[in-house]
Amino acid sequence: MASWQAHFVSRYSKSFVKPRLRGQRDVARLREMLKSPAPPLPPNVRAERREWGRVRGEWVEADFACRTLLFLHGGGYVQGSPETRRSVTGFFAQQGFRVFTPEYRLAPEHPFPAAVQDVIAAYLALAGDGSEPIYLAGDSSGGGLALALMMFLRDAECLLPPSAVLFSPWTDLAISGESIRSNQRRCALFHEGDMQYVANLYLGGTSPTHPFASPLYGNLENLPPLLVHVGADETLLDDSTRLVSRAREAGVVVDLKIWPVVPHGWQMITATIPEARQSLLEAADFFNSTAEGPRVS
């Protein structure tokens, strides 16, 4: 049963945020509308801006950190930043992870495959000589980037993460999922036309079924165990359910949980929605349950 806080935030977003975003075609204005102050970090956690693999980003960690997590932020490939995910990265830091969130290049200034190239560079720099496993997580478009990264690593016979967590991953830039239309009224944030517009900005003329842009169409064999969380009312619901189905057909171990009522990106709202912290706790437990040495495809 969904919390009253989830109901409230979803209704608020549908009433006041979603109408303002609809039809917005000025990317600078869109970024300004979605810009928000960085959430405060827990008292025992610190953040530091650094460059890793020639990609700038933010480290978030506590003194007792013992594992490394690469977290890929969402934002439709056109906006978002490491600072906007501090409620998520700060939580993982409290669980013993040193978290690096790369500030990958954004469209339309830097269309596909710039973002993919940046996250590959960041991951390879973190992995180094392969002596330490690098865990992986991403939300929305960051979830799509996480899948593209893993497919690249597998094909290049590089170190793979022990496991990966995907929060409402955007896996189909062809916008072909039925939930894009069936959940359009229930979704607290997105409209179909706006999603298509943003996808086109990122693709820059590339086919929307390119596997590194839309991992739903890629070869999912030999990927590490996945945990997928998505909201039942999201337009992106089918991006998750179809991915899970195809991954399982390819022999990948996948845990899927569909959450009622919650809005897209609810994991960032830890101060308000109980389901946010619960989702992150389950993600941390998943990482613990899949902990192992480095994996090579």
Protein model, in words:
The protein has 297 residues and is an alpha/beta fold. The chain has one domain: Alpha/Beta hydrolase fold, catalytic domain (Rossmann fold, 3-Layer(aba) Sandwich), CATH 3.40.50.1820. It has nine helices and ten strands. The protein has helices at residues 4-21, 27-34, 86-94, 114-127, 141-155, 179-182, 192-203, 237-249, 274-289, and strands at residues 46-52, 55-61, 67-72, 97-102, 134-139, 159-160, 164-167, 226-231, 254-259, 295-296. Strands 1-2-4-3-5-7-8-9 form an eight-stranded mixed beta sheet, sandwiched between helices. A two-stranded antiparallel ribbon has the order 6-10. Helix 4 (114-127) crosses helix 5. The N and C termini lie far apart (40 Å).
Q: Helicity range of the residues?
A: 25-40%
Low-pLDDT residue spans: 293-297
CATH superfamily: Alpha/Beta hydrolase fold, catalytic domain
CATH class: Alpha Beta
Topology:
Layout: H1 4-21, H2 27-34, E1 46-52, E2 55-61, E3 67-72, H3 86-94, E4 97-102, H4 114-127, E5 134-139, H5 141-155, E6 159-160, E7 164-167, H6 179-182, H7 192-203, E8 226-231, H8 237-249, E9 254-259, H9 274-289, E10 295-296
Parallel strand pairs: 3-4, 3-5, 5-7, 7-8, 8-9
Antiparallel strand pairs: 1-2, 2-4, 6-10
Helix pairs in contact: 4-5
Brief write-up:
The protein is of the alpha/beta class and 297 residues long.
Q: Which characteristics define this entry?
A:
disordered C terminus; 9 helices; 10 strands; Rossmann fold; globular; 8-stranded mixed β-sheet; 297 residues
